[in-house]
């Protein structure tokens, strides 16, 4: 593994108006690692995730992906905001999966997956479709390529969304509460796909309430509350033996 | 109302027994007894229907015999070449004005959603003026605008102009009519387009950006196709409305459209009523065709959404929508 971490956050802060949602977040994710971000709602986990691919901009601190500043360019000691095109270029290798799937409802599952490879990378339709079919099979939906999202279950939609993100061959995958909007019996099928993905060495940052997944799959676990990192470490140790009062209080409610 | 205190709906001893007997919740034999009630009568419905049909029949029979309607003249002029050519002019006015209005409306809608406050305000001002004044008044104004601006110039203000030319645009009355109708309609179209764009879930744009697609690609491949579902039905209504609004070009004054030519003929023959009927029949023919066309376009853009949603957004009047509604009802009944 190279010396540059996949994601490096150095005292990252972010406010919405007068509301400081992230307060000096520092953390590092190395290539091939799976990091689970847990914490009560409103703790800033999702916002932090969205900062990593510049859907939100950082107010203070430095956030970089593979050594490159996210959303800014540093030149002669000054920071320049990136043009929309340059910001889009940075997102090419960062896949994101949303809580509410956000599949394009007017397109079939296959069309959802081939959009970005065709529009962004200029892949031919035939090539993109071939790859999309492979990805659909990988997430266990080989027979659903022609279905519209409305005709798929929540779990199936989320698996299509994962395939859609993978179609760009990302180096980093961001998951924003991928199972929170699912019926309980559908959670497992999505987690299975994510486990398989982790086993192939994908770098993943997962905001989740699934402590079982964190314990089994994650290399490290970060507990956030009120915009700060309260506790972090090996997920099995943190979950079994939380050090901080707030971590204990939170875990006693969700475990 | 009936005095019977206990209609058929109350719990029955038989049903109780069936419920307690069955341990298997999936067993068929625990269904309650079928309801065989006398259906509620609707005497008023029948009465009102009969009265309406009779009134209509009386009107039709009476109208057929009245000389003032001049049915012979209606037959004579309905396929008159002057009328059918004028109908073509009306269609052209509608088509050109709507195409310009949709493009301009899209531009105004994007301007109103712009983060630049000046751009936003300019669009708002345009819509305020063109929606806030009657289209008839606007058409009169465009009719005389060449008197206010007889010469158009390009150059630095208050200096000798580089180029100056005669205002020939607004001396061509057909072009004036198209511009006048389009500028008015653009204000309405921009509001329709804006509502459509705003109706698309924010998560769609976000997902598209997260996939590294540019703003233009996001609009073109993700937002606009979804907005179309909201934009198409009112736009269809606007086309139908525009077809009828073209009759106001008399204000410019342009008189080669369907209504203008009918009026011109009746001014010579002194038979206004039959020519009004002729013009109305042509307008009705066109609006009916447009309604059917709208139905199929809506179906096309409803892909990926629940079928019934698309059916609901059909205009309330029109042969196509009635047929599909009946069909949908039949399908639903079949399911139950």
Automatic annotation (TrEMBL), chain A:
Q: What Pfam family is a match, any one?
A: ABC_tran
- Domain of life here? Bacteria
The reaction(s) catalysed by this protein are: a polar amino acid(out) + ATP + H2O = a polar amino acid(in) + ADP + phosphate + H(+)
For this UniProt record, the keywords arranged alphabetically read as follows: ATP-binding, Nucleotide-binding, Transport
Keyword Transport applies: yes
Q: Where is the ABC transporter domain?
A: 7-251
Matching entries from InterPro entries are given as: AAA+_ATPase, ABC_ATPase_HisP-typ, ABC_transporter-like_ATP-bd, ABC_transporter-like_CS, MetN_ABC_transporter-like, P-loop_NTPase
* Coiled coil regions, renumbered to chain: none
Matching entries from Gene3D superfamilies are given as: P-loop containing nucleotide triphosphate hydrolases (3.40.50.300)
* Its EC number(s): 7.4.2.1
Q: Single GO molecular-function term?
A: ATPase-coupled polar amino acid-transporter activity
Against PANTHER family, the record matches this protein to: AMINO ACID IMPORT ATP-BINDING PROTEIN, PHOSPHONATES IMPORT ATP-BINDING PROTEIN PHNC
Q: Which family does it belong to?
A: Belongs to the ABC transporter superfamily.
Q: What is this protein called?
A: ABC-type polar-amino-acid transporter
State the organism named in the record. Arthrobacter livingstonensis
């Amino acid at each position: 593994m190279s010396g540059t971490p996949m994601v490096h956050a150095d005292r990252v802060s972010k406010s919405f108006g007068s509301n400081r949602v992230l307060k000096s977040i520092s953390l590092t994710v190395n290539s091939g690692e799976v990091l689970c971000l847990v914490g009560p709602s409103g703790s800033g986990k999702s916002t932090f995730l969205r900062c990593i691919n510049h859907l939100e901009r950082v107010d203070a601190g430095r956030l970089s992906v593979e050594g490159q500043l996210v959303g800014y360019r540093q030149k002669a000691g000054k920071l320049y905001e990136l043009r929309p095109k340059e910001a889009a270029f940075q997102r090419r290798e960062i896949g994101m999966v949303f809580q509410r799937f956000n599949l394009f409802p007017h397109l079939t599952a296959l069309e959802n997956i081939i959009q970005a490879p065709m529009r962004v990378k200029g892949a031919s339709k035939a090539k993109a479709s071939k790859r999309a079919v492979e990805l659909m099979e990988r997430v266990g939906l080989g027979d659903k390529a022609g279905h519209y999202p409305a005709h798929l279950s929540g779990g199936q939609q989320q698996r299509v969304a994962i395939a859609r993100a993978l179609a760009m061959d990302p180096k980093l995958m961001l998951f924003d509460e991928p199972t929170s909007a699912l019926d309980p019996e559908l959670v497992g099928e999505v987690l299975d796909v994510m486990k398989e993905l982790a086993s192939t060495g994908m770098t993943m940052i997962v905001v989740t309430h699934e402590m079982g997944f964190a314990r089994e799959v994650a290399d490290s676990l970060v507990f956030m509350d009120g915009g700060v990192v309260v506790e972090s470490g090996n997920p099995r140790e943190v979950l079994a033996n939380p050090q901080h009062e707030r971590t204990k209080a939170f875990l006693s409610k969700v475990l | 109302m009936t005095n019977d205190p206990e209609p058929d709906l109350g719990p029955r001893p038989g049903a109780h027994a069936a419920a307690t007997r069955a341990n298997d919740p999936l067993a068929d034999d625990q269904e309650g007894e079928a309801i065989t009630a006398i259906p509620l009568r609707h005497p008023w419905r029948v009465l009102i229907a009969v009265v309406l049909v009779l009134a209509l029949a009386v009107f039709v029979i009476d109208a057929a015999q009245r000389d003032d309607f001049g049915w012979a003249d209606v037959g004579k002029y309905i396929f008159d070449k002057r009328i059918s050519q004028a109908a073509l002019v009306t269609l052209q006015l509608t088509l050109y004005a709507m195409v310009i209005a949709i493009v301009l409306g899209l531009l105004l809608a994007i301007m109103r959603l712009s983060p630049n406050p000046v751009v936003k305000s300019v669009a708002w001002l345009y819509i305020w003026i063109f929606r806030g004044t009657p289209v008839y008044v606007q058409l009169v104004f465009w009719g005389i605008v060449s008197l206010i601006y007889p010469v158009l110039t390009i150059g630095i203000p208050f200096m000798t102009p580089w180029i100056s030319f005669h205002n020939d645009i607004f001396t061509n009355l057909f072009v004036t009519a198209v511009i006048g109708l389009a500028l008015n309609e653009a204000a309405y179209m921009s509001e329709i387009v804006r509502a459509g764009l705003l109706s698309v879930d924010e998560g769609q744009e976000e997902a598209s950006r997260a996939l590294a697609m540019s703003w233009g690609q996001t609009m073109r491949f993700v937002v606009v196709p979804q907005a179309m579902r909201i934009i198409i039905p009112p736009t269809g209504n606007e086309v139908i409305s525009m077809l009828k609004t073209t009759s106001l070009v008399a204000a410019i004054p342009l008189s080669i459209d369907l209504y203008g030519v009918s009026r011109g003929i009746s001014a010579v023959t002194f038979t206004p009523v039959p020519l009004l009927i002729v013009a109305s029949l042509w307008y009705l023919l066109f609006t009916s065709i447009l309604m059917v066309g709208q139905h199929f376009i809506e179906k096309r853009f409803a892909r990926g959404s629940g079928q019934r949603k698309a059916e609901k957004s059909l205009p309330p009047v029109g042969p196509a929508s009635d047929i599909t509604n009946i069909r949908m009802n039949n399908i639903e009944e079949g399911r139950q």
